[in-house]
Write a structure and sequence with these properties.
Helix content: 55-70%
Shape: globular
Pfam families: DUF4287 (PF14117)
Radius of gyration: 12 Å
Protein name: DUF4287 domain-containing protein
Organism: Streptomyces caatingaensis
Structural class: mainly alpha
InterPro entries: DUF4287
Amino acid sequence: MTETVKGPASYFPSIEKKYGRPIAEWKNLIRTSPLTKHMELVGWLKTEHGLGHGHANALVAHTLAEAGGR
């Protein structure tokens, strides 16, 4: 039986479908950005890459959590 994905990762399939880029690519953009604060990164993804707030927030939250909060 498959476990249901919860939290920010639950947005990943719709992010890939809507924006046409794999999650690894989005995470790499976030990691290589000179910005470090959560909401700065969310705003950047929204303005520069056209993501919606929920999708941008999910990507940033998941990526920063992996990096230990940066």
